[in-house]
Amino acid sequence: MTDQDAVGLDEAAERAVLPPRRLGLVATIAALVLAVDQLTKNWAVSTLPGRAPIDVVGSLRFNLAYNTGAAFSFGAGKGLGPWIGLVAMVVVLGLALGMTSRFVLGAVAAGLVAGGALGNLADRAFRGDTGLLSGAVVDFIDLQWWPVFNVADAAVVVGAMLLVVAGLRAPA
């Protein structure tokens, strides 16, 4: 047996030991985030226009805003938002097919990021009327000391933090 054959056997043995990717969990979490995100945005669009912000508790209030830019309205009016959203989906696909999706925490994290990215892409796709991905993202959660955001944004941030933790825990 040559050294190259031994390396091939080691790789095959390693693949046999790794758990399968949990794509069903990734998809389930993404679908849940997408559904909650779109339901809450529809509520905001039907309830909040033309009225004063709704104070909830402490500095939390509901205040309708539309974001045509990327995160925190960066690049608003420059058409960057849709492209950043598409890049995010490519990254999510890589995460779903990567090592972390083989473990529950990584799969949940990838699902959160995927669902959030899909939620904001859905806004861009279906809430505009001047062309493909021309819509604005609906934001309505206002802490008054942070930019206004939505459920999708929160899922992306929490998912990204969990991906870091999952990446540190996953075997190399």
Structural summary, described in words:
The protein has 172 residues and is mostly helical. Helices cover 58% and strands 10% of the residues. The protein has five helices and three strands; from the N terminus they run H-H-E-E-H-H-E-H. It has helices at residues 3-17, 23-47, 80-97, 104-126, 151-169; strands spanning 54-57, 60-67, 137-142. It has a three-stranded antiparallel beta sheet. Strand 1 and strand 2 form a beta hairpin. The two termini are 27 Å apart. The model has no long low-confidence stretch (mean pLDDT 82).
Estimate the strand proportion.
5-15%
Annotation, overall tally of beta strands: 3
Q: What share of residues is helical?
A: 55-70%
**Major sheet characteristics:** 3 strands, antiparallel
What is the general shape? elongated
Find the structural class using helix and strand composition. Answer: mainly alpha
Computed over alpha carbons, the radius of gyration is 20 Å
Strand order of the largest sheet: 1-2-3
Overall pLDDT level:
82
Tally the helices.
5
Could you tell me how far the N terminus lies from the C terminus, measured between alpha carbons in angstroms?
27 Å
Series of H and E elements: HHEEHHEH
